[in-house]
Amino acid sequence: MDIESFRKQGKEVIDNICDYYQNLDQIPPMSVVKPGYLYKIIPHEPPEEPESFEDVQQDLQSKIMPGITHWQSGNFFGWFPSSNSFPSMIGDMYSNMLNIVGFNWICSPAVTELETMMTDWLGKLIGLDKRFLAVNPDGTEGQGGGSIQGSASEAIIVAMIAGREMTLDRHRGDNIEAEIDGMRHRLVAYFSDQTHCSGQKASNIIGCKACIIPSDEDYRLTGDALLDAIRRDKAAGLIPFFVCGTFGTTNTTAIDDLVGIADVAEAEKLWFHVDAAYAGSALSCPEFRPLASGIERADSFNFNTHKWMLISFECSVMWVADSTHLVNALSIQREYLPRVKGEKTFVKDYRNWQLPLGRRFGALKLWFMMRMHGATGIRANIREDVKQAKWLEEKLLEDGRFEIMAPVVFGLVVFRIKPAAITSTKILPIDECVTNKANIDLVKAIHADNRVFLVGTNIKGKDVVRVSIGSTIGTQQHVENLLDVVLQLTTSVIEQWS
Amino acid sequence: MDIESFRKQGKEVIDNICDYYQNLDQIPPMSVVKPGYLYKIIPHEPPEEPESFEDVQQDLQSKIMPGITHWQSGNFFGWFPSSNSFPSMIGDMYSNMLNIVGFNWICSPAVTELETMMTDWLGKLIGLDKRFLAVNPDGTEGQGGGSIQGSASEAIIVAMIAGREMTLDRHRGDNIEAEIDGMRHRLVAYFSDQTHCSGQKASNIIGCKACIIPSDEDYRLTGDALLDAIRRDKAAGLIPFFVCGTFGTTNTTAIDDLVGIADVAEAEKLWFHVDAAYAGSALSCPEFRPLASGIERADSFNFNTHKWMLISFECSVMWVADSTHLVNALSIQREYLPRVKGEKTFVKDYRNWQLPLGRRFGALKLWFMMRMHGATGIRANIREDVKQAKWLEEKLLEDGRFEIMAPVVFGLVVFRIKPAAITSTKILPIDECVTNKANIDLVKAIHADNRVFLVGTNIKGKDVVRVSIGSTIGTQQHVENLLDVVLQLTTSVIEQWS
């Protein structure tokens, strides 16, 4: 494909993208293909000779699209949003054009420097404490700073590695290296039963123990529960080194007792990481910041702009208050990886802030998005989603058949058909087990109906329905349609049971 | 930015991309900005109100582009190529359009199934042993398969985690879990001094020991050297569990003694990973496959399509012969992550094959590229680069002033001004130290000249010049220009010394 063909066909792709977004309301949000569908309809070997753009394009429509669940649809309310925007897409097109492997400053100074500046922009946008910023107001280097990770999972791994380094380093003064080595398998990290599963996975990856602490009745990890667990583990000879607090859990968007956790982490010298993967975006609106009290005392903080801040997957931004332990743990020097001597602030080797070596020009889409939406546009997008979520909560309560399972704070509404709404002549009594079955049936009915898409989850034994509002092109009308579907199918489900 | 604005401005972006590629020969390949340049010319806060596309576009040209080193230029010969193609870019545009977070099959069946099929296509394209393929010829599930990782670094981490699981699992029969835990810090992984630094970094990340074995005079890790190291470590109470062989090292594209390593790995029950990050692409040409003997006995194999196979960064494909230990080590179940019951082959949960949870629709760009280039196009691209590299080697030898430091097998030419070519009335004798300085000066002179870009490296104490041929738009003419620059500046450097 030569330049002039791309000039023509690239524009066709732009048209196709626009048409896709224009027609999303006409497409059922969920793919209904059966496992193995694609194997039956595409060849099992790569073609020997080149095929035309038109042929691939046609197969994209006829063979790939049926296997797509449409995360960008206004009718998609599954998991958390994967919000996108045209400015972000443009940024990524340019990033692809340049196709830089930005493992250090020399690879392309703009890649490093724009990342430093965009993570500072973003930190300021969400009101992050200045200890997390890379550049001080006088232009000198801060101790901390942000960097773009692939995902919140990688951010937790990186934070745990920094925390491990911090803890082992503290013991290095008094011990020989072999003793330090012997401490490694006694290291323990703390999560709650509502922490994202990536915490436990990260523990498996770095090879430490994970202690999963039961959350309280509001699904929160508390400082008191953390302290109890630490005391028990220390008595058993373990070495606590890390705790993850969550600002907006996956199941209910609960907010952990961040102040209580910070107190314990300080006293016990734990690395305190805050995972705000989803809800961090809301901090762009000042009215949400009181909820985030305690974050200013964390060692690291992370949120996914690709969830709820109009950035295409993947772009997870992680800040540390002090990069020393992080860089010590992750830096490797080689002769083919030169380092520029100069002002440290602007020649950050971000490869030492992350797991891999290479990195995309990820800051470019942040730059396009933040400039073309402006802070007001970003805030308006969040506020509109929260307004729609509150509206949905109100209507569900008005209906009388539902209970809301957790406070609606952001864009997530978690509810279930309440036991009292289920009447049955066949099954008695209407206990939690029956209620669970009815709610699982409701989710199944919504999937079968396929006008809207959402997923269920299970919170402490209760099967519930989970509506996540945040599609970039979603409107109040989409939420009203969702409500219609839910009310109608709830009636069917209850009828089937009665 | 609404749909119709994107329809218009997205097409402008396509034009800009085409113009960029058309004009690359007119632009010096290396950025010459000074650290901190960007901080001085862009605001330190995000804008409150939205700005226009035109304004951002203009700033991209005037403020970002000066900070870019042009990896796509035909005059870029640095590190390893970051080869790209228009079909890959189109695939990525569609991936961005759909913006799916594909953590399991249900998120979009096509994301999982196309990945299974494209990694099999790619495996067949490079002649990989059938034990690495996901689907058997009869359509049933294989034990192995490929998956898309971000980078070769992540592939090594993942392989090491699988290897650790395999080794600890073998001890589980005879030991209680606490004893298994106590083994963790005695685990040791093997690399050579020419293995990519990501091996040592991965060891730091997963918290095991790394043993760096000296390579032989041809820069290869041999089975004998590995066996010696293992015997020594076992005598010291360590537990060998992993070895990384390299097919095409970073410094010289040396190929380790893969057969010898496979023998030792089998006998000692080590996980054998082959890192072919750069040179793996060459295996699309059958004439290179005899060099890869031994790979068929590896436990895992990886190469970066984003290096030399016309795919934009990042897309590193990793195959395992048996996914059991990998999935056991990396799978975490949660109620919001449902799994489809069905034909296992096509509902792979690739999140259990990698470090993060979420994943892009990466297979789409592989599909566009492999179809629109065809196997013949992919092979032609490799063969043309190798031909240019051999031509350059020949011309450098003809000149008489250079020595070639390692066999030119792929697209990399590593050479230096030889001691005998340096005459000096000021400095005597012309020893290795002087020769090193002359060659460092040559690299500096090439950077200052900035008609072409390359980097130097140091191989076992010798400073050398490294020319990596593989730019997608690079031609024989670009290599001829490079030769002119090298010859001319070598004369200047030698004159300065004499």
Automatic annotation (TrEMBL), chains A, B:
| Nucleotidyltransferase in keyword set | no
One Gene Ontology biological process: carboxylic acid metabolic process
Query: In Gene Ontology terms, what is one molecular function of this protein?
Result: pyridoxal phosphate binding
Needed cofactors: pyridoxal 5'-phosphate
- PTM N6-(pyridoxal phosphate)lysine: list the residues: K307
Assigned GO CC terms: cytoplasm
- Species this chain originates from: Coemansia interrupta
Protein name, entry field: Aromatic-L-amino-acid decarboxylase
Family listed? Belongs to the group II decarboxylase family.
- List UniProt keywords, sorted A-Z: Decarboxylase, Lyase, Pyridoxal phosphate
